[in-house]
Design brief:
248 residues, Rossmann fold, 9 helices, 7 strands, 15% strand, globular, binds acetoacetyl-coenzyme A
Length: 248
């Protein structure tokens, strides 16, 4: 059988790059997709994944725009024929306390972090169901489980991803398609480094493992859920947060 084809949104980002690498190591053909508006980051991404050659390719998308997602899939289908694995890892923050929040802070986050999940998932689900195989992994956040000061928008979108995950998991379970979420804690990415140092240090002091997570530690779990033999795990959420939030 040909390589399984994986699409990773936010694919050139802090977590996305490691997820692409890890899926490629596991033998997937990987399509990293992201905004094409950061040429420097895109160039750095090219170097970071150069060892994988054409096994990791880049295709631009704006996940908040329906047509941009359908155009993306037209190109992916033309080149690779299908999508077997979708990792929804595109996400932004607009951190601000709610009493100072403008409508744009709210809607920017919703459009990318939650509408983007609909826009990217809706077009691939039919094909996955028809072929009897699919793996959908949604990158949520510990802050979708606990809420975070300054993140009513982000926490709402990330909690929304969990509801989406569980509902879709039920709908497609009999078709060989699994839908799961991963909830990273605070990892060493640009998103977290943008948090004011004092606040970040205070958060790190509350992490039992005593440090930020590594993107590779998130990618490992995504790869686990995306594997062929993970077919009995669906509707689950896997926290990877160094013990920052524990529940059962
Ligand atoms: N907890 C409790 N009180 C807080 C607080 C906090 N975390 N942050 C600020 N406050 C206090 C302020 O000290 C202030 O108190 P006073 O009125 O008594 O002076 C009050 O709340 C009001 O604060 P402001 O509205 O003025 O807030 P601010 O402008 O100082 O900063 C903020 C708010 C920008 C949200 C800042 O707290 C912040 O950046 N917090 C970090 C948010 C965060 O963790 N984001 C995660 C980004 S990474 C990510 O999202 C990845 C992932 O999935 C984990």
């Amino acid at each position: 059988m040909d390589k399984r084809v994986a699409v990773v949104s936010g694919g050139i980002g802090g977590l996305g790059t490691e997820i692409c690498r890890r899926l490629a190591q596991a033998g997937h053909q990987v399509v990293a997709t992201d905004l094409a508006t950061r040429p420097e980051r895109l160039e750095a991404f090219g170097s970071e994944v150069s060892d994988y050659g054409d096994q990791i390719v880049f295709e631009p998308v704006d996940v908040s725009i329906v047509e941009s997602c359908s155009d993306l899939y037209a190109r992916v289908n033309e080149r690779f024929g299908r999508v077997d694995v979708l990792v929804n890892a595109a996400g932004i923050t607009r951190d601000v306390s709610f009493r100072k929040m403008q409508e744009s802070h709210w809607s920017d986050v919703m459009r990318v972090n939650l509408d983007g999940v609909y826009n990217l998932t809706r077009p691939v689900v039919d094909g996955m169901c028809e072929r009897g195989y699919g793996r959908i992994v949604n990158i949520s956040s510990v802050n979708g489980q606990t809420g975070q000061f300054g993140q009513t928008n982000y926490s709402a979108a990330k909690a929304g991803m969990h509801g989406f995950t569980m509902a879709l998991a039920r709908e497609v379970a009999r078709k060989g398609v699994t839908v799961n979420s991963v909830s990273p804690g605070y990892c060493a990415t640009q998103l977290v480094m943008a948090v004011p140092e004092k606040v970040r240090e205070q958060i790190i002091s509350q992490i039992p493992v005593g440090r930020l997570g590594e993107p590779s530690e998130i990618a490992r779990v995504v790869d686990f859920l995306a594997a062929e033999d993970a077919g009995y795990i669906t509707g689950a959420n896997i926290p990877v947060n160094g013990g920052y939030f524990m529940s059962f």
